[in-house]
Fold this protein.
Amino acid sequence: MSIAGRSADQPVRITLAAADDFDGWRDAARDLIEAGTAPERVVWIVEGGVGDLFGGDAPRPPAAPSFSVLRQFVDLAKAVVCHSDPERFGLLYAMLWKLQGNRKAMEDRADPLLDRLERLAKEVRRDAHKMHAFVRFREVEEEDNKTRFVAWFEPEHHIVRREAGFFVRRFANMRWSILTPELSIHWNGTTLTEGPGATKADAPGGDPLEETWKTYYASVFNPARLKVKAMTKEMPKKYWRNMPESALIAPLIAGARAREVEMIDRSAAEAGMAGALEAERRIEPGGNLRAAWEGLLAEARQCTRCDLYKCGTQTVFGEGPLDAAILFVGEQPGDQEDLAGRPFIGPAGQLFDASLQQAGIDRSQTYVTNAVKHFKFEARGKRRIHSKPDAGEIEACRWWQEQERALIKPPLTVALGATAARSLTGKTVTISRAREAPLTLVDGSECWVTVHPSFLLRIPEEDRKAAERARFVEDLRRIKARADELTA
Ligand code: URA
């Protein structure tokens, strides 16, 4: 900060070091008050900013405050300084000047100056809130093979330095950078550094971490509070393009009715009102959950999230009790499942049933579904030959699997094969490595990974087939034992 123009008839030019230079403003304001400089004489300039036309300013003399400033005003000033309004420093100084004559000026609700300052502070806090909520990190690998999380964000005001502490506390153990047009901030786990502004092109485009955000967003989405107009106001479209979960907004709105019923059911149960509600609605116990599931099913039947709906006969949704302790996820329906509209009833399903029986699992007590709900095939004459779903199709359909799991909340989910494991974890999973010990899903529940029954059917050598089958049954036994433990 520097001050120029000290004679009584000259304007006093204050040059601040940065657009959010609160310390510089405070020191200059103190000096100006001490010198009895009226607000209308002061010109506030930010170094390097468009107003910085005067150059050659004198260095600032040390501040010697002989007056105290209300805490309330300091808090207001700290926020207002970060606003992009070019008049902010002058407005603050005018308020400080006013406070010298009237200590109660901060209580005057009718004062237009105070009102304007409070509005500016509110806008800054709002922008900060958006930054907390909408910054999305993408994972990048640095030269030293370490991971850095990089986010691009466009604040409306000069809030990046002010909010850096929030991200340091929140992501203390990560290496991260937040790039904005004005400046970039970088955290290496111990030190926060600043760099120049960046462009969106400097930030990476997208990566698997986004799946975590999407899952998180889907799980915190409260359908009963869905107000589309308010939502677009709170989450301006400007931010949507940087946010992976914005892809979820339309389907979340679509699934909201079903989830709302489920929520009402849950809160009624928590409040001990379940009996009254059930009687009123003349439904069997768990009926609301069932209604929610049926709502979901009805929506899934209309699904056009990927092109596979054009391919098969129908959506093959999951089936089974909604209080199941084990939820099995397969790959996609086969030829017979597509025709019947039920999962795992063809050859792979028969092998699955037999293996479950050997492991002592009653299929009718489990929920069975698929990662992809439509049959993907290639037509060869009259035959329809199974074709593997691609990553985009798995991703598009993942939504339904997540909704099924959100309703059922199984303590244990089983991925049958790599497609299911990918759908559940959002990552490529190597079955041989993931087998035998559980993975933790984003909701904290256990996911056990094993082979898909079709894999067993495809093994040509009988002895190997028998060995792999025995191993599959062994996995299922382990899964049963664990489910028993979790539900005991
Ligand atoms: N394979 C699957 O993954 N699911 C089915 O429903 C049938 C075969």
